[in-house]
Specification:
By secondary structure, this protein is α+β, with helices and mostly antiparallel strands. Helices cover 59% and strands 12% of the residues.
Amino acid sequence: MTRSLPAAGPRLLLRGMALLVTVALALAGARPAQAHAELVDSNPAANAVLPVAPERITLTFSEILDPKFTQALALDSARRSVDAGDARISSDRLSLSLGLKTPLPDGTYLVNWRALSSVDGHVTAGSFPFTIGRATLGAELGAAGPASSAYTVRPLEVMGRFLHLVGAVAATGGGIFALVVALPAFRGKRGRNARLAGVESRAFSLLRSLLWGGIAALALAAVAALVDQALKLETSPLRVVAETRLGAFWLTRVALILGLVAAVARPWPRPSEGAPQRAPMDRGTLRTARPRVMLLAVTSLGALLLLTTSLTSHAAALSGPTALYVLADWLHMLAASAWVGGLVFLALTFASAPRSTGLVERAELLGGVVTRFHILALASVGVLIGTGILSSLIQVGSFPGLLTTGYGNVLLVKFALLAPMLALAA
């Protein structure tokens, strides 16, 4: 006894979303572990013992700082403020300096700092002690606290990034597959094969349902990202949107999501409807966009959503040809989206064939789809390998670095996640 297609539809969508979840984990693994503003130098240095108090404290970071939300405080061992409250950012926006009250008695002091990267929007925080005069650092360190630096990854941030990748992959990958595989494969055969016309219609209906799921994921991701950033900066979401670079990108993402809603909500013409002869267009036809136009809109919006991710990634903060690094990161995610989104829609297309058809008839119906997807998959894997090698050379630099660096370890995990996907596409 065969299953009916309507009953199988929800299960197919769940399987498709599961596959998108897999690639989202892999893409999330592509983000370097140190993609934020780290403290790389300070004057005085952490744990330094100075004969006299310095006039100012200077902190130098690895990425460009957001001056409105980067701050530092100097405290004595009793947690009383000893700074002059005149923190300022250098012209290159890589350093922060802070004046000290005078005179400062001998003792151990603690510098607390918080930095917001203007590039990727990550918030880091830390502290370090230094000693003036004859005071023993070890004696007062318990009161002042040891040196520390950390970037705290909160569950809300992980959820937001994960959902954003799921939604962007669904829109971009599904659109690419439909444009370069499904529509060309079905073209010219609909009028001659009623079964194929039905397969196409059902497959596009499932794609649209999957796109709605991706849009829901993107909307939740936008809310989670904004709330998480506001909590980290201890400010209102409105200030985050209005006063930070990440807020500007957040508004861009919201606009792109609304564009997706408009594209998917519009009536989609069914490519399989009608005879092969061109029919006169009435007003209803004129009000309904062609499938290719709608799919181009969905794919472009999804690709732009992925671009906002690359523009706020560590690739955008690297020294050197930044545009090349951002382009490589974006192409990497586009290729992964085309590959995985294609696998999802390929499965939906095959499952849309009538259950009563045999293997031979099913192969005849969908042979063109498989052939075209094979070409798409090969091209996608080629881009993945090329951009992956470039990223590895930039971030790791050597094979031992895969084992000795944080980003190298992340790459190994990513390869392990993608290995089953390669086997599936083989």
